[in-house]
Design brief:
424 residues, Cytochrome Bc1 Complex, Chain A, domain 1, 2 domains, 6-stranded mixed beta sheet, 5-stranded mixed beta sheet, 15 helices
Length: 424
């Protein structure tokens, strides 16, 4: 039984998180969105209660309950008063062990999921991420959308959902986290919840890491233009695969990306926003998922899009060739070291970090040693990590814009691939 506890007596509140390994990346290629639909359907009636009755039972406890599905995990949980923790866990046990899986609710859920896809197409920032991930990882499961497509959602059946629940909702596949006013009784309270779940072995939830960027060869950039009519502003993502969170090179590169584009005074923000005013924000970061990727995000006006892409590409090349100054590195280290306090300033946030690091395969002492390890990063470590992992010739640029902009985009960004915004 994997139970994490972050106790605090400051408030009579308890936070509970249940995490199942195996998220959207494990959906069959022709059943995309299955994990998200199945997890949500479990929430819509359980333990002999209808959806309305289950909602009323949570409301009667003054409790919240949310579900989140990413490529690697399914998370369920929320907040409840300490005095109602036992009753809350009993409801969570119903959701896990006795979901109704009502076919009428499934039909309604699928209708809502298709509507959510339409809403996503109105959100250019979410849209560029959707197309960027597909271009970056291609046919690998990490390139697939967690919410599915219209075609895949139309193929989902109740039998698919039942099969997903049977496969993934087993005791061996569950991690339980408590934060707040729980004390030593938390692990005891978790035992009956786990006892209700099947005891068969959990399926393998680890995927082979993508070999590299889809369609890329060394020194060949790609540019994907997501054509959407009447865009006056462009949403742009640039990047390529990066190291995994658990690898030794991740922290030196995290320092480097913080120095390059992780703060308001970083080099990227200074050149793009402060000096030129081309984009309200400009950010560079590493993802902490199991795929591992480096990204830069800017959102200039349509008029300034070509110049912004050319500038960011040039700055990235200069970063790879010239590195960072000692002052930039020292500032980034101080920023990360001091900012970490805000990542762990509440029991709930500490629990989130502990769950994330456990599932990513990081050491148990991640929180205790993070600041020390940040301080220990040397400029030489950063140079070696950048040389291993950063390559201007591999940059993928994805932008949501109107196709008339294509003729003005810099040729150095790569051959343009135009895709309709509603095609995926």
């Amino acid at each position: 039984m994997r139970v994490l506890i972050e106790p605090s007596s400051a408030l009579p509140l308890c936070s509970v998180q249940l995490v199942l390994e195996g998220g959207a990346a494990h959906d069959p290629a022709d059943k995309l969105g299955l994990g998200q639909v199945a997890a949500e359907l479990m929430r819509r009636g359980a333990g002999g209660r209808t959806r309305a009755e289950l909602d009323a039972a949570f409301d009667a406890l003054g409790a919240s309950f949310e579900i989140d599905v990413d490529h690697d995990h399914v998370s369920m949980g929320g907040m409840v008063l300490e005095q109602h923790l036992g009753a809350y866990l009993a409801l969570l046990g119903d959701v896990l062990a006795a979901p109704a899986l009502d076919p009428r609710e499934l039909r309604e859920l699928l209708r809502e999921a298709r509507g959510a896809l339409d809403e996503l197409r109105d959100d250019d920032r979410a849209l560029v991420r959707r197309f960027h991930d597909r271009a970056l990882w291609g046919d690998h499961p990490y390139g697939r959308p967690a919410g599915g497509t219209r075609t895949s959602l139309g193929a989902l059946t109740l039998a698919d959902v039942q099969g997903w629940v049977k496969r993934w909702v087993v005791a061996d596949n569950l991690v339980v986290g408590f934060a707040g006013a729980v004390g030593k009784r938390a692990e005891r309270l978790a035992e009956p919840l786990l006892a209700r779940l099947p005891t068969r072995a959990a399926p393998r939830a680890r995927l082979a890491r993508p070999a590299g960027m889809a369609g890329a060869t060394h020194g060949r950039r790609r540019l994907v233009l997501v054509d959407k009519p009447a865009r006056t502003q462009s949403q742009i993502l640039m990047g390529h695969p990066g190291p995994l969170w658990k690898t030794p090179d991740f922290l030196p590169l995290e320092v480097a990306m913080t120095a390059f584009g992780g703060t308001f005074t970083a080099r990227l923000m200074t050149e793009v926003r402060v000096k030129r005013g081309w984009s309200y924000g400009a950010r560079a970061y590493l993802s902490r998922g199991r795929a591992g990727a480096f990204s830069m995000h800017v959102f200039p006006s349509a008029e300034q899009t070509p110049d912004t892409i050319a500038l960011v590409h040039r700055m990235f090349a200069e970063l790879c060739d010239g590195g960072l100054s000692d002052d930039e590195v020292a500032f980034a280290q101080r920023y990360l070291e001091r900012g970490f306090a805000f990542e762990i300033d509440t029991p709930e946030r500490r629990l989130h970090v502990r769950l994330s690091t456990l599932l990513a395969g990081l050491p148990d002492d991640y929180i205790q040693t993070y600041r020390k390890r940040v301080r220990a990063v040397r400029p030489a470590d950063i140079r070696r990590a950048m040389k291993r992992h950063l390559d201007p010739g591999q940059l993928l640029t994805t932008l949501v814009a109107t196709r008339t902009i294509a003729k003005r985009l810099p040729k150095t960004a790569g051959k343009i691939e135009i895709q309709r915004f509603d095609s995926y």
